[in-house]
Amino acid sequence: MKALFAVALGVLTAIGGFVDIGDLVTSSVVGSRFGLTLTWVVIVGVIGICLFAQMSGRVAAVSGRATFEIIRERLGARMALANLSASFLINLLTLAAEVGGIALAMQLASSISPDLWFPVAAFAVWLVVWRVKFSILENVTGMLGLALVVFAVALFALHPDWMSLGSQVLLQPSPHTDESSATYWYYAIALFGAAMTPYEVFFFSSGAIEEKWKPKDLTQSRINVLVGFPLGGLLTLSIAACAAVVLLPKGIAVQSLFETALPVAQALGKIGLIVAILGFVAATFGAALEVTLSSGYTLAQFFGWPWGKFRKPASASRFHVVMIVSLLAALGILFTGVDPVQVTEFSVVFSAIALPLTYLPILIVANDPKYMGDKANGKVTNFFGLIYLGVILVASVAAIPLMIVTGAGA
Amino acid sequence: MNDRRALPAPPPVAGRVLDAGLDLLDRQILDPDGVPVSTVDDLELTTPDDPAHLDPEHPPVISALLTGPILLTRVFGGRLPDSRFIRIPWKVVTDPGVVLSVGVHADSLDASWTERWMRDHVIARIPGGRHDPE
User: Fold this and answer.
1) What 3-state DSSP class applies to B42?
2) Vertex A216 angle, CA A215 and A218, to 5°
3) How far is A177 from chain B (nearest CA, A)?
4) Residue of chain B whose alpha carbon sits nearest to that of A304
5) How far does the CA of residue B102 sit from the closest CA of chain A (Å)?
6) Average pLDDT of the segment spanning A20-30
7) Ramachandran angles phi, psi of B64, nearest 5°
8) What's the farthest any 2 CA atoms get from each other in chain B?
9) pLDDT digit string, tens, across residues B73-82
10) Closest residue of A to B131, CA-based?
């Protein structure tokens, strides 16, 4: 049991960061439109986030510095301020989407309009951030989020034609759909952006400091990364596969969480649906916590304020004020009547644009012996780090043009 | 600016050489208990008597770390009135490492007045604000 909880930070970061509302919807949209043809993007994304989350966790454990402090030290005030503005805005959009996601999941369970759930969800998120210890927060949401494994179970219960699913993975581009290649690449970037969202590293590295990781915990950090993120990737893929098996042949378009849950309901009935909804609530709630904390972390680390849940709220007052204001702003966004699902899809693509400014400083500092002593990056890590930086750069440059060309994937 | 040949070699000094831009600016400042005070937003140097001809024997020295609204003028340009400067005197700095350690408590410095203001006027008034999370 102890070993299970030891990977909780990785599992929560992955469940909240990977399988958040944006991903729940994006992967079932992708599954219902492209089948499993974009599987390779999820794999590339999982390897990338493992690489950089592990690097940021190692920097945090060895030097005690969280990611946004490093961003400011290495990029200077001007570039770091640009990154902060972009990251904070994306965080805010994501937070609105996640709070909306909790409300949508609660609507599935209760049939009460999401408008009524928004304030309840935001208040619940604040209450947890305000009063609950970090270790409890990550264990409970991480473990409840595992309910999403029901999608993998459902996939087996659907008795799909495994050969045809396999051929969708390998045959590029897919013969099964008539989507244009621009749309294909737009969703590739959306999936990649969803896998590598910067708030995951902000949260993971700050969480490592909240948990007071030291150099001797590096193995634990590595296991966290290697269990958590691939698990998130597997859940993503099983959601996409369920959609590919049930929704794609019937031409059902995914417009809300309801269609995402449909394959589970078909395969496992009411019990499956209940478990899936529990998983939705846990994943979106975990993501909302993660994003709320990240908005506090980024701002406090940029300005050098005291931060962290290991302090009393009174000893990290500006950190807590930022989180309260962010939640209120997210509520404001939701009450304009925007569709939370659409908000996430935008925030995922925008985060692809901000990626290089976050990942370059991590790579630089992970090589700096002043911070890292003898725990600096090895040649292999640097080789893959540089390759990924190239991929990230291409994705960030291509994101906006593809968004315009495809009309945001319409 | 990048033409290093135009600069004369610095005189040899005993001890560590710090690059003000790289090792001081934008670094975190911690108090003796490890509580973050602020970030080094800018540096204040002593003004030499004759700015046109610097005396190599008496170069300008850092008199204070600056923080607060000075960051905006550093990024966007412009001048800040002297009354808005928030200074942490250089003499309280005990160790310029990866982070700058200062020898006085965060609560005794002007640099963290916003932290205290938010604590006293907002956070401490919300139930549970002064307790450890459970």
Assistant:
1) strand
2) 70
3) 50
4) B38
5) 14
6) 85
7) -155, 155
8) 62
9) 988 988 888 8
10) A312
Does residue A51 register a pLDDT over 60?
yes
- Measured between alpha carbons, how far is A136 from A346 in angstroms, rounded to an integer? 31
Nearest chain A residue to B70 by CA: give it.
A77
The model's confidence at residue A92, banded by pLDDT at 50, 70 and 90, is: very high
Q: What is the ipTM of this complex?
A: 0.88
Sorting pLDDT into bands at 50, 70 and 90, what band is A293? Answer: very high
Instruction: Count how many domains chain B has.
Output: 1
CATH of the domain at B40: 2.30.30.240
**B129–A306 C-beta distance less than 8 A:** no
Verify whether the Cβ–Cβ distance A306 to B115 is below 8 Å.
yes
CA-based nearest distance A212→chain B, Å: 13
Q: Which of A328, A57, A107 is nearest to A210 (CA)?
A: A57
A312 with B124: Cβ contact below 8 A: no
CA distance A272 to A51: 34
User: Is B116 part of any domain?
Assistant: yes
Residue A169 confidence (pLDDT): 83
Domain holding B25, by residue range, is 18-48+58-125
| Residue B133 domain flag | no
The residue with tokens 């008034």 is B125
Least confident of A210-219, B43-52, B61-70, B95-104: B43-52
Do A77 and B41 count as a contact with CB atoms less than 8 A apart?
A: yes
Fold of A12-403: Amino acid/polyamine transporter I (1.20.1740)
Of A63, A73, A300, the CB nearest to B26: A73
Instruction: Please indicate if any CB of chain B lies within 8 Å of the CB of A68.
Output: no
| pTM of structure | 0.91
CA atoms within 13 A on the CB side of A403: 17
Choose between A359 and A9: higher pLDDT. A359
Identify all chain A residues contacting B71, using CB atoms and an 8 Å cutoff. 77
Contact list in B for residue A302 (CB cut-off 8 A) is 39
Question: Which of B36, B132, B133 is closest, CB to CB, to A305?
Answer: B36
So where are chain A's domains? 12-403
- Which residues in chain B are contacts of A314 at CB distance < 8 A? 119, 123-124, 129-130
pLDDT at residue B109 is higher than 60: yes
Q: Do A304 and B29 touch (CB under 8 A)?
A: yes
The contacts of residue B111 (CB under 8 Å, 6+ apart) are: B29, B37, B38, B67, B68, B86, B88
CA separation (Å) from B39 to A77, A187, B27?
A: 10, 39, 5
CA distance A185 to chain B (A): 36
